[in-house]
Amino acid sequence: MTAVVSDRRIGPPEATGLEIGVVPDPRAGTVQVVVSGEINLDNAALLRRVLLTALVSHRGTLLVDLERVTFCDCAGLNTLLTARHAALKAGRGLRITAAGRRVERLLDLTGTRSHFM
To answer: What is the model's pLDDT at position 58?
Structure first.
């Protein structure tokens, strides 16, 4: 089962939306979540819903690819931490498998990188 969720906004080019793809991999016992675009206060709830739904719908570890994320604010970080907490509570994990420069910087500045390894 593959799902793609999109929240495209109409507006100037810099007002990019958020695209999320969910791809389960039953052989490895994981679920790949690929995110691209901006994660901000306006769309962090969408990402939270997708991550929590993937966690409930699949039994494996959530592998989150943020390489194509162009912006992530504290609402996005809070969403990732909330999903990680829910995964741990369910006896599973949430790992960031790839992150762009901006997400890497956010994780470094907030000292949260180790939570997603």
So the answer is: 86
